[in-house]
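agent> step 3/5: call structure_predict on target 'RNA polymerase sigma factor (TIGR02999 family)' (Dokdonella fugitiva).
agent> reason: downstream docking stage needs a structural representation; sequence fetched in step 2, passing through unchanged.
tool.input:
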Amino acid sequence: MEQDITQLLHAWHRGDRDALAIAMPRIYEALRRSAVQRLRGEREQTLNPTALVHEALLRMLGNDTDFVSRAHFLGIAALHMRSILIDHARARQAAKRGGGALHVTLGATAEGAASDAGSVLDLLALDQALTRLADHDARAARVMEMSCFAGMEQDEIAAAVGISVPTVARDMRFARAWLNRELAA
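tool.output (status=ok):
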């Protein structure tokens, strides 16, 4: 299935609009599932999963990026979703002086995250911690970003970043421990 979507994305980049119409329902559903997971902890539904996905897709499809694969597409979607969520959280925090910040779960999407699957983190604090992690270990930060914001599986992350699945698992363990320590302080 990933190969089919990759071929459709390449065909779309070459100008075949029908290819995007065929690929989009599958891509959209994956992004929507991820958005539902990301917004599960939100107390007030001012940003819903559909709006998040639509905004991310508008930002992505408006430029001339040639997506290497489905995993690459989802990786870029993670960047846009993170940006949208952070912008939204900042706007809400400014409006309410921090009273209604968005919350996400750090471990809800990653495989093997049973120990901290229930920990709820402030989105702005997570964004700041991911930025600090990127200064320390950029790849681990990117891996965690793909997991947290796009809901990508380890094999998809491995394909997008160009590393092995065991390396993704190690990076995720390191990033999770590093983020938990940073956010507990």
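agent> step 4/5: record observation. The chain is about 70% helix and 5% strand.
agent> proceeding.
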